[in-house]
C-alpha cells in the first residue's frame, strides 16, 4: 500500500502542494484495507475521528447511493461544507484522502 500511495503522491506532487497551500487545516490519508490512518497532519485522536465518522460512515453511504442510482457509476470526489470547515474527500481503491479546509 505504501508504494502505491508514494507513487500517487509523486505523480500528483504539484496538485498536492497546491491543495496544502490553500487554507488547509490538515489532511488524513487512510488505508482502506486495514481501515487505519496511513498518513496525517492531525493528532492521532482527530485523525481517527475523521477516519471513523467521515470516511467510515458517510463515504460508504454516499458510494452506495451513487451505485443505487446508477450501478455503472462510481463516487470519485465528495465535498462537505459545514459552518466551520470544509471536508474534501477522494476515495480510491486502496486509500482515501481527506483534506480539511
Automatic annotation (TrEMBL):
- GO terms for biological process, alphabetical: microtubule-based movement
Please list which residues make up the signal peptide: none
- Which GO cellular component does the record give, naming just one? cytoplasmic dynein complex
Subcellular location(s): the record lists:
Cytoplasm, Cytoskeleton
Alphabetized, the UniProt keywords read: Cytoplasm, Cytoskeleton, Dynein, Microtubule, Motor protein, Transport
- Its primary localisation, in coarse terms, equals cytoplasm
Q: Which organism is it from?
A: Drosophila erecta (Fruit fly)
Name a GO molecular-function annotation: dynein intermediate chain binding
The protein's name in its UniProt record? Dynein light chain roadblock
- What family does the Swiss-Prot or TrEMBL record give for this protein? Belongs to the GAMAD family.
Taxonomic lineage from the root: Eukaryota, Metazoa, Ecdysozoa, Arthropoda, Hexapoda
Amino acid at each position: 500500500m505504501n508504494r502505491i500511495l508514494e507513487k500517487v503522491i509523486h505523480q500528483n506532487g504539484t496538485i498536492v502542494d497546491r491543495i496544502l497551500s490553500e487554507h488547509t487545516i490538515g489532511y488524513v490519508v487512510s488505508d482502506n484495507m486495514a481501515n487505519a490512518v496511513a498518513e496525517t497532519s492531525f493528532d492521532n485522536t482527530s485523525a481517527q475521528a475523521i477516519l471513523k465518522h467521515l470516511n467510515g460512515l458517510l463515504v460508504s453511504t454516499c458510494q452506495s447511493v451513487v451505485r443505487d442510482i446508477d450501478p455503472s457509476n462510481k463516487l470519485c470526489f465528495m465535498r462537505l461544507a459545514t459552518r466551520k470547515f470544509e471536508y474534501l474527500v477522494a476515495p480510491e481503491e486502496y486509500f482515501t484522502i481527506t483534506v480539511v479546509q
